[in-house]
Design a protein that fits this description.
This protein has 597 residues and is an alpha/beta fold. Helix content is 40%, strand content 14%. The chain has a 9-stranded mixed sheet with strand order 3-2-1-4-5-7-6-8-11, sandwiched between helices. Strands 12, 13, 14 and 15 form a 4-stranded antiparallel sheet that branches. A two-stranded antiparallel sheet has the order 9-10. Helix 3 packs antiparallel against helix 4, helix 7 packs antiparallel against helix 14 and helix 10 packs antiparallel against helix 14. The two termini are 57 Å apart.
């Protein structure tokens, strides 16, 4: 398998189609292909890496297996494996299994059982026993092993960076075959790179100091792309020429068993601490309860219900020390729950967050709602640093508007009390000469039709760090996002045209005439009421008991540009001056549309 070492290119995973056609065709549905191939790719990768140390491991195993306890045997075998976190004590390799087709079932099980417990845990989470049983039932185990052995995953052919691409492409292609949403499993590299570049744009001076240790965490880990790319960027790019390099420790939690297995496989292969990759529901089972992190990255699922976890989450929300005390969004969408979780995990001495959401967390829910209260909590604590509106059609499973929130508890002096908004939702327009912030993909992949190129990222990082208003950047004070929602009442009148009294002797409000007004926090309620309401309804009053404070973020409003319409006479004259045949029906239609507004 040829893999281009240019990490901006797509890897060649054509072997998935070859194996599907030659081995799995007519036995497995397209939707099941990934379940078979993914675990075999992981095992093949481990098998290739262990090839040069297998003999040393087996010699050490035979020498010490009856002389020391199992807990002491493990470090001996790791040392024999050259410091790797994995090894195999069996006498088999994938290649040697093919030598005895008659006993391949027994030999393969012995081979798998020869791996250390971390690898066996990965295999279990792939539910590999079911895969093997079905291959055996259909007499395909030998053919599958033979086919995967033809995929060369030795490190001199496929480095760790490219192995990440292999996993990513495998998942995308597998889900594409089954018409499932690949975006549920990983975030496109261009989006991750933008998140990383902005997060670390101000960090280099700190990271190149001696003895620096930093942590990176993703509570919706997927296959681990965000934390792995973040670490690689810091070590291989940001601090590449530095005398000192920081120690980077990565952490993640994932609910999907297969994605967890892939992420743990990659951690194992690249030398990370596999215990830092944990399985479970982040809402109900925080696997890092006492841990805080310097950098966090996440792309939580959009519009996914949390109703099955509602009892647990509501109980925790009642605890002032809990993660969800600021408020609860509608049970139909848990994105703001993930945001609250991540804020609770920020390193107290200074933490940064980059999290992708759709538009809903920015503006859903009126004043007094859970969503509004959460936004208020984030903004009034001065944690919201910047939001970037992304171009459309960047993700594999959705074409809706998406945004990156940048949150921190260590704002620089010039950013305190302010929020930066960057509008990158502008596609390249060659016809009008506009550069934009994305280009069309050469080949659409699901809903992913656009790509953010490296020069787009450079431009956006420059806009972020410059921190100056411009066509694509607006800077607001925290209070600019808040508003009062007041309830305006009017009297109820009787048949004689006189106000009706309530039980306490006051004027009874007419519920049919009740209205709500939204007033910016920066304005005085009484002044607004005197100037804007009373001139139209002189007998109205404010029911102050019903006043609520809300917060919302509206990119449409902030970046709206009014375009002056051309005079109708000018457009009419243009139509009359042109011959019908010279502009055609389409041209006439467009001019008429403009004329009619």
């Amino acid at each position: 398998m040829a893999i281009n070492n240019n990490h901006n290119s797509k890897v060649d995973v054509s072997f998935i189609f070859q194996i599907t056609d030659k081995v799995l065709w007519n036995t497995y549905l397209k939707s099941e292909v990934g379940d078979v191939i993914l675990p075999f790719v992981v095992i093949r990768r481990l098998d290739c890496i262990l090839e040069s140390v297998n003999q040393k491991v087996r010699t050490a195993y035979e020498t010490f297996k009856d002389k020391v306890n199992e807990d002491k045997l493990d470090p001996i075998l790791r040392k024999a494996a050259g410091g790797l976190q994995f090894y195999n004590t069996s006498k088999h390799t994938l290649e040697s299994l093919k030598e005895n087709p008659r006993t391949i079932e027994i030999d393969f099980h012995n081979y798998l059982n020869g791996f250390n417990k971390e690898v066996r845990d990965i295999i279990d989470n792939f539910q590999f026993d079911k895969v093997i049983s079905r291959l055996i039932k259909n007499k395909l185990l030998y053919q599958m092993i033979d086919a995967i052995c033809q995929v060369d995953l030795h490190t001199d052919k496929v480095d760790n960076h490219d192995m990440g691409y292999v996993f990513e492409e495998l998942i995308r292609v597998s889900n594409e075959l089954s018409n499932q949403a690949a975006g549920e499993h990983f975030t496109p590299r261009d989006v991750i790179n933008l998140m990383i570049r902005i997060i670390f744009s101000t960090e280099r001076e700190i990271l190149i100091q001696a003895g620096i240790i930093r942590t990176i965490y993703d509570p919706t880990l997927g296959t681990g792309g965000m934390i792995n790319l973040s670490k690689n960027y810091v070590l291989d790019v940001l601090c590449k020429d530095s005398v000192y390099k920081p120690t980077i420790r990565t952490y993640g939690q994932e609910i999907n068993e297969q994605s967890y297995a892939i992420a743990k496989s990659e951690a194992l292969i690249t030398g990370e601490n596999v215990d830092n990759i944990r399985h479970g529901n982040t809402f109900t089972e925080d696997r890092f309860p006492d841990k805080h992190f310097h950098y966090q990255f996440a792309n939580p699922p959009y519009g996914v219900t949390w109703s099955k976890d509602a009892d647990f989450i509501k109980n925790e929300s009642a605890n002032p020390a809990g993660r969800f005390y600021a408020g609860l969004p509608a049970t139909s969408d848990g994105q703001l729950l993930f945001v609250q979780h991540m804020i609770s995990k920020m390193e107290r001495e200074g933490g940064k967050i980059a999290v992708v959401t759709n538009g809903s967390p920015l503006f859903s829910g009126g004043a007094g709602s859970g969503e509004s209260d959460i936004r208020k909590w984030i903004i009034t604590n001065d944690w919201l640093d910047c939001i970037v509106a992304l171009p459309k059609d960047l993700f594999y499973n959705t074409g809706i508007n998406t945004y990156i929130w940048f949150i921190t508890n260590q704002k620089s002096k010039q950013r305190r009390g302010k929020v930066q908004l960057i509008n990158a939702n502008i596609s390249e327009d060659k016809l009008n000469g506009e550069e934009g912030f994305c280009r069309p993909e050469k080949r659409a992949m699901g809903n992913k039709r656009n790509k953010i190129e490296s020069f787009h990222i450079e431009k956006l990082v420059e806009i972020y760090t410059r921190f100056e208003e411009g066509p694509y950047c607006k800077i607001y004070n925290n209070d600019d996002f808040g508003y009062y929602q007041i309830t305006v009442e009017q009297p109820e009148y009787n048949e004689k045209g006189k106000p009706v009294k309530d039980k306490k002797g006051g004027v009874k409000p007419d519920s049919k005439k009740r209205d709500k007004e939204t007033i910016p926090l920066t304005e005085d309620i009484e002044v607004y009421f005197q100037n804007e309401v009373l001139p139209n309804v002189p007998d109205a009053w404010i029911d102050y008991d019903k006043t609520r404070i809300g917060y919302e973020i509206s990119f449409t409003k902030y970046f709206y540009e009014y375009k002056v319409l051309r005079p109708s006479a000018e457009i009419k004259a243009e139509i009359e001056a042109l011959e019908y045949g010279s502009i055609g029906q389409k041209g006439i239609t467009e001019l008429l549309k403009e004329l009619l507004g």
